[in-house]
Design brief:
Strand content: 35-45%
CATH topology: Aminopeptidase
Number of strands: 8
Mean pLDDT: 89
CATH architecture: 3-Layer(aba) Sandwich
Low-confidence stretches: 1-5
Helix content: 25-40%
Strand order of the largest sheet: 1-2-3-4-5-6-8-7
CATH superfamily: Gcn5-related N-acetyltransferase (GNAT)
CATH class: Alpha Beta
Oligomer: single chain
Order of helices and strands: EEHHHEEEHEHEE
Structural class: alpha+beta
Number of domains: 1
Number of helices: 5
Length: about 180
């Protein structure tokens, strides 16, 4: 995988750019944010987009492309978790592309990107316990379930999430 794009199966990751605000708006729909506290304001989206574009060595955001179409977004970023720096990941696949395994393939690809970035041994995902599709993505992508945790997201809103962890020093599903 090169610095601009990683691939897993028929899914490619394309680095987030100035022109990707439209995708952020699409993934901000109520049905896409039900497990994340609901849609953000246009101002919040502009701030998030700027943060995605400006990520330096502390993570990367990507458009997920399959069959030549943008199908969603995924990324990894640095966070402090239980006394150590780790990578965290999160994703969203547009409704018309859900149920095809694209999020799982994107999660495998983003794990390879996080591994290539170095810096941290573990990649974590924290889907809400009430979000079966995202929990299934973690399981299918080779993450290990560590158990439920209380997470604050967005700020001021507490939720029970599952802590899934992938050890980036071990083979990632789909590694050749």
């Amino acid at each position: 995988m090169d610095a601009e794009s990683g691939a897993a199966g028929d899914v490619a990751l394309v680095g987030w750019s100035e022109g990707d605000l439209w995708l952020l708006r699409r993934t901000n729909a109520p049905e896409m944010t039900a497990h994340l506290g609901g849609p953000e304001s246009e101002e919040q989206l502009a701030i998030r987009h700027r943060r995605y574009v400006q990520l330096d060595g502390t993570g990367r955001m990507f458009r997920v492309v399959a069959g030549g179409e943008t199908v969603g977004s995924i990324g990894y970023w640095e966070r402090e978790w239980r006394g150590e720096k780790v990578w965290e990941t999160g994703w969203g696949v547009l409704p018309e592309f859900q149920g095809r395994g694209l999020a799982t393939r994107a999660a495998v690809a983003v794990a390879a990107e996080a591994r290539a970035a170095g810096r941290h041994r573990f990649l974590h995902a924290f889907p809400r316990v009430e979000n079966p599709p995202s929990n299934a993505v973690c399981r299918r992508a080779g993450f290990t379930l560590l158990g439920p945790v209380e997470m604050e997201y967005p700020k001021g809103t507490w939720m029970t999430s599952n802590d899934w962890r992938l050890d980036l020093t071990e083979p990632i599903p789909g590694d050749r």
